[in-house]
Amino acid sequence: MVMTPKGWLGIVLHAHLPFVREPEYEFFMEELWFYEAMLETYLPLLDKFTSLLNEGVDFNLTMSITPPLMEMMRDELLKQRFERHFDKLQELAEKEVWRTKFDERLNKVARMYKERFSRLRRLWESNGKDILGAFKKISDTGHLEIITCGATHGFLPLLQVNEKAVEAQIKIGVDIYRRHMGKDPVGIWLPECAYYPRVDKFLAKYGIRFFVMETHGVLFAKPMPRYGVYAPIYCPDTFVAAFGRDVESGKAVWSAQEGYPGDFDYREFYRDIGYDLDFDYIAPYIHPDGIRINTGIKYHRITGRVDLSQKDIYDPDKALEKAALHAGNFMFNREKQVEWLRSHMDREPVIVAPYDAELFGHWWFEGPDFLYFLFKKIHYDQNNIKTVTLKQYLNMYPQNQVAEPAFSSWGYKGYCEVWLNGTNDWIYPHLHMAADRMVEVTTKFKAEYGKKNIVDRAITQMARELLLAQSSDWAFLIKMGTAVEYSTKRTRQHIWNFNRLYEMVNGGNIDQQWLAFLEWKDNIFSELDWRVYVADN
Asked: Which 8-state DSSP code applies to residue 527?
């Protein structure tokens, strides 16, 4: 007899990176974001999901993989460079086992890295070096629901000055998902969880059934939702469902101070052998110019609020025990949560717990193990809660309250402040003018679409440059004070490329050699339908 749970847990992982591909350089610092995420988050998550499937564990979750990340996962140049990075890291791990052989505690950690890299290498190769395809195989089992995102993660509320820019982000995001996944997406992760009223009309137009919101976006809906964030609401007219984030489950995992990731037994992120070891020894594994960078091999645990030099040696076994303990605590708290909620609702509640995927593995090394233990404990140890994809929950409860969600995002203070402030506000006049010019050019030359002639190619590249400039990552990184120079350069370069192409197309004098260079360099979205920008009649 199958027990009906008292409630459901809908974990949502948001996997995203900006499109960083610099083919003209043999080594490029910011490309490391992708290689690190592959080794520390995406491959470890794939490893845990595969293990759960092989063990017959009934687990369910939702995961967005954004179009830029899909493109990077399938890009042959980046895959080759990732493998070269992987080779060097495995070589370093081998050397570390030898170097630390007289220190039992360090050697235990070194052997852990060596074994870990070997396992991930086998996983990478056994899946044909196609990690996106591997995630698709898991999604085909029904345990993982992969959803889409805006084409380049553009912050939609700040693009709505020209709603064609918003529609293009959504439509192209759907197109890219369809090309890589072989089916239509049913859900979307609105970039930065940023919603503005009536953006759902574009979601409905392109077949999207649901999206995820920050808590106050649902709680401030009109009328006030009867079930708060513990059931979806339908947007008026479109009946696209909005799922709100649960604060309690979020804080347990997000917060480094109050949540699990700050536990003293977990691995310390900020101390790495790339900075600790003798330069001559570590030089082949850091920046070719001699700049010390993270290698991903770290020997210390958080220990406490002490200086990095005072950190104690990491013990992988103790950390795994703590991950299992925290998974049990998380499950217990969700059980109590749904028990209380169920007593006040006439349906089983859903606790929606969205997180950046990179939290699991990259920032919180033990995060993938936490998820693995959590899914197993939920499957074997209790019957109060079960995991669910958002699509599955919506299918179980197709009737929901109609309410207009409120403008919101999951950024600092909940609105636009992160992406629109004194450090980055210069970006938006350029984005708005470029969007207007895009509509102008596509409307003027709409008969050229699909002809593969020089005009069609140039307008296609204009769309790529505009979309890449619209990425919310650049404004975010500028505000955070990290990679400011690179983010500023990327924004300015894409806008400059766009405007030069605009002038060439309108002037009938397109530099074919320069266009070919841009097509080689900024090669995102090889099949791009720019007709979405054409003005409506």
From this structure: S
Summarised one tens digit per residue, pLDDT across range 304-333 is 999 999 999 999 999 999 999 999 999 999
Task: Write down all domains in the chain, each with its CATH number in brackets.
Answer: 7-74+130-257+314-413 (3.20.110.10), 423-533 (1.20.1430.10)
Query: pLDDT grade, residue 257 (50/70/90)?
Result: confident
Q: Which of 30, 315, 356, 511 is an active site residue?
A: 356
Task: Give catalytic status of residue 91 as yes or no.
Answer: no
DSSP letters, 272-330, are -HHHHS-HHHHGGGS-TTS-----S---BB--SSS-GGGPPBP-HHHHHHHHHHHHHHH
DSSP conformation letters of 8-40: EEEEEEEE-------TTSSS-GGGHHHHHHIII
Per-residue pLDDT at 256 exceeds 90: no
Alpha-carbon distance of 374 to 253, in angstroms, equals 12
Is residue 3's pLDDT more than 80? no
Overall average pLDDT of the 459-473 stretch: 98
User: CA 393, CA 405: separation in Å to the nearest integer?
Assistant: 19
Tokens of 7: 């409630």
Q: What is the DSSP string of 386-417?
A: EE--HHHHHHH-----B-BPPSB-SSGGGSST
Identify the active-site residue in 31, 40, 192, 265: 192
Cβ(491)–Cβ(469) below 8 Å: yes
Residue 21 has pLDDT above 50, yes or no: yes
261-310 pLDDT per residue, tens: 999 999 999 999 999 999 999 999 999 999 999 999 999 999 999 999 99
Judge contact between 405 and 358, C-beta under 8 A.
no
Residue 267: what are its φ and ψ, rounded to 5°? Answer: -65, 140
Residue 484: which residues within 8 A CB-CB, separation 6 or more? Answer: 477, 478
Residue with tokens 């790529």: 464
Q: Is the confidence at residue 530, as pLDDT, over 60?
A: yes
Only one residue has tokens 């687990």, namely: 59
Tell me, yes or no, if the pTM score tops 0.85. yes
Q: Residue 226: is its pLDDT beyond 80?
A: yes
Active site residue 456: no
Q: What number is the average pLDDT over the span 377-396? A: 97
Name the β-bridge partners of 63. 13, 146
Q: What integer pLDDT is reported at residue 1 of this predicted model?
A: 39
Residue 80 has pLDDT above 80, yes or no: yes
Helix (H) or strand (E) holding 211: strand 210-213
Neighbours of 228 (CB within 10 A): 18
- Cβ atoms within 10 A of the Cβ of 58, count? 12
